Amino acid sequence: MNNSAGNTGRVLWAGLRALLVLTVITGVLYPLAVTGIAQLAFPSKANGSEIKDANGKVVGSELIGQTYNLPLKDGEETAAPDLRWFQPRPSNGLGGNSVNTRYKLILSGATNRSGDNEDLIKWVTDAKAAVVKDNSTADYKVKPSDVPADAVTSSGSGLDPHISPEYAKLQVHRVAEKNHLGVAQVEKLVADHTDDRILGFIGEPRVNVLQLNTALKNLTAAKG
Amino acid sequence: MSPVLAGILQLLALVVALGLSYRPLGDHMAKVYSSEKHYRPEKWIYKAIGANPNVEMRWPAYLRGVLAFSAVSVLFLYLLQRVQGSLPGSLGFVSIDPDQAFNTAASFVANTNWQSYYGEQAMGHVVQTGGLAVQNFVSAAVGIAVAVALVRGFARSRTGELGNFWADLVRGVVRILLPISVIGALVLVACGAIQNFAGIHEVGQFTGGSQQWNGGAVASQEVIKELGTNGGGYFNANSAHPFENPNGLSNLFEIYLILVIPFALTRTFGRMVGSIRQGYAILATMATIWLGFTALMMWTEFAHHGPAFDIAGGAMEGKETRFGIGGSSIFAVATTLTSTGAVNSFHSSYTGFGGGITMLGMQLGEIAPGGVGSGLYGMLIMAVIAVFIAGLMVGRTPEYLGKKIGTREIKFAALYILVTPALVLCFTALAMALPTPANSMTNSGAHGFSEILYAYTSGANNNGSAFAGLNADTQWFNSTIGIAMLLGRFLPMVFVLALAGSLAEQTPVPETAGTLRTEKPLFTGLLVGTIMIITGLTYFPALALGPLAEGLAA
């Protein structure tokens, strides 16, 4: 029995030494080497693909969605969207459970609501009504059937930087009106910032909201 | 181009990419585990371990190595989390509570990567990179080692020797996982995944104010998370987070990484047992189930039945714009048919049937193509069961690859397939019978039950994905899922190695006219049928209460 206990001890000791050696290799050397190469070869991407505005000020990441809201007024729980800017996908909160903090990066996550969940049905219904109302102008009426699914659903990360080209186009008339720009001008802006599928079939067509709004800001600044 | 067509083309591109790497990677792995040569750095490692890599081990010794290494790993990872608050490079995060630290340690060592914590709010650089990511490498290497030991059991005769665990472990890390990870991590950075050691910092926003960003060695962890079929995200949103999975191309690449080793291991198997065609038959079985599941998933997600999705006009809840329905569905199937559990979209918000497909994928035992190593040994166990059933039908002693499947062998195989269903169904029943676990549900009705069924299915099968509405950070779930993960990982390994030892001792029986030709399409059909019937009978009642009820109501 002594022998077997000693044997077990020896194997555990070997296991610990193996773990420590492999930790040095895969937990220290490997990440440091990859970080070194990445920082040399792709410094911008390795550090979060930051986007700067015309003044050179960092306004966020190409990859991380943001809110484009009016300042929070007294008595409001959530800020109202600033309709001058293109709006991102909804990012619904999750109550006290897992949390999605409305485009605040420090915690990412989804609503995890099922298709028959009452909350989700209400969120989607409300979001759809809001999209129809916000985007209808005097001479452009949005029909509920025009609203694409991404405009009324939250993403998986809660940080989706993109909207579908359909949702961007749907916002054109409103954005043009609020910024006193021509519809054609804004349409062109959206077209310029629409990315097709990679190689024609990988991923989905999409519009990066931060890049689009940055370009929109430049356009209004140039004009006004 | 329609989204459906784009989805199909992405699937085809994946098939082509996997096909191109099948032979070179499969042959390379066969060479890695058959070679007598030790590279110089490997010799240093063996010296540091104090193990002689040339000593052949019988199954009890091999198993002792697996269990000792894993036990030490659980303890090390547990302690690392418990002292996080005192370590430098922890971004100011405090030490993890005992129940959650146990759960996480068990989870990463068992190749499950179930996460009851929020990555960006709980784990600093040291624990993520020096603890969790290390287990991503070594737990994967342990899985491959056990699979290779079983393959040697079929390939060798009259010996009982299965190889050397330390050599298999080290070679798996150094010769297979590390080189692919270095290249893959750089590909992901080129796509936009971050790789730095910045702390939490404020970054300006468009409308003023700022966002809080977390830095981290994300790309280097992301690549091995997929390649080693681990699945534990750096961030809470896992591969849905743009810093982990920035665009459509990185998405496809990550799915490729998930599938590449499990599929190629069938080639390694064929090479090592001396018949490439035996490997093809296993590959065909895996590919049939994988493609079938992917087709079903795309169908149900594009059809988007469900009240909320009908109003929205599409099942985009929990899915990212850049991946869409197609890229999300392919990922969801790949991650649940392997032991990965990484997610690029949230399964809880899939359609009722879609959620059911992810659950059934895990319940098959994750064998199509399955986790690295665990997929191959799981599938070979099913093959043993299938030849046994075929043998019963014609009334002769079954054989597989020249080895008799006798009483002893079939007992080990039967025990193997009983472990996970017993864990899943007993724990689910217990959780439903007790008063408090149901408080963790976010959704009610059939979907609430599904959250709990999914949790134990995922834990016991070492997947790690979740119907994440479930608040699993309670003492009950942390402990029971932790136990399910450990038993679901290591009990099957005991039976696999025992079976391997038993097979390796045998004298091969000559092939006769009555031998079942296990390299033929007929056997592939038999194997697919066996898998579906055994799993179907085991889980059908539970699935009927959860995803089937939800799907049929929609």
From TrEMBL, chain B:
Pfam families: KdpA. GO terms for cellular component: plasma membrane. The system is composed of three essential subunits: KdpA, KdpB and KdpC. Signal peptide: none annotated. PANTHER family: POTASSIUM-TRANSPORTING ATPASE A CHAIN, POTASSIUM-TRANSPORTING ATPASE POTASSIUM-BINDING SUBUNIT. Belongs to the KdpA family. The chain crosses the membrane at residues 61-80, 137-155, 176-198, 249-268, 280-299, 376-394, 415-434, 481-501, 522-542. The lineage of its organism: Bacteria, Bacillati, Actinomycetota, Actinomycetes, Kitasatosporales. Part of the high-affinity ATP-driven potassium transport (or Kdp) system, which catalyzes the hydrolysis of ATP coupled with the electrogenic transport of potassium into the cytoplasm. This subunit binds the extracellular potassium ions and delivers the ions to the membrane domain of KdpB through an intramembrane tunnel. This is Potassium-transporting ATPase potassium-binding subunit. It is found in: Cell membrane. It is a multi-pass membrane protein. Keywords: Cell membrane, Ion transport, Membrane, Potassium, Potassium transport, Transmembrane, Transmembrane helix, Transport. NCBIfam families: kdpA. One of its GO terms (molecular function) is potassium ion binding. It comes from Streptomyces nymphaeiformis.
